[in-house]
Design brief:
Elements (H helix, E strand, L loop, with lengths): L1 H18 L10 H5 L1 E10 L13 E2 L6 E5 L4 E6 L5 E9 L4 E8 L2 E11 L3 E6 L6 E7 L2
Antiparallel strand pairs: 1-2, 1-3, 1-9, 3-4, 4-5, 5-6, 6-7, 7-8, 8-9
């Protein structure tokens, strides 16, 4: 009888420890935040060169000129024109301690490498092209 009680106590203690184990929370990375479909809404140049996308510099994009990026977790995706007027396959990745976003777009036999500084939020993505002067901004909204 003593053996059964001791075994029962050990079993209860083991179950209690398992039940009290803290659940782990997975933190989202910058890469996780980029995954999804992003539709171009505004664009413009940093005319006053203050490195901010100011209201007076924003130009809304006509529906026919809009395009979107669809970014998948494994670093692949698509660039899709308005009304699916074109679909380019692409690869994407992060550089410089996740401060630079590179798109490698395959368009009609050509490879176009584009590098952007960027800011990503829950529903917004701002791409900043610093290879031109003044810098050029493209503002996207998350579709899904």
């Amino acid at each position: 009888m003593k053996i059964i009680r001791k075994m029962s106590l050990v079993l209860v203690a083991a179950v209690s420890l398992i039940a009290c184990k803290k659940k782990e929370t997975a933190l989202l990375t910058t890469k996780d935040g980029l995954i999804g479909s992003w539709k171009l809404k505004q664009q413009g140049s940093d005319i006053n060169k203050n490195n901010k996308f100011d209201t007076e510099e924003k130009n809304f994009v006509r529906d026919t000129a809009q395009f979107s990026f669809q970014l998948f977790k494994e670093g692949t995706g698509f660039r899709v024109g308005a009304n699916s007027s074109f679909v380019d396959t692409m690869q994407w990745d992060l550089f410089n301690y996740e401060s630079t976003l590179r798109f490698k777009i395959y368009n009609q036999g050509f490879i176009n490498n584009q590098f952007f500084k960027f800011q990503v939020g829950a529903k917004t993505l701002l791409l900043i092209d610093t290879t031109v002067s003044p810098s050029y901004f493209r503002s996207f909204e998350k579709e899904n």
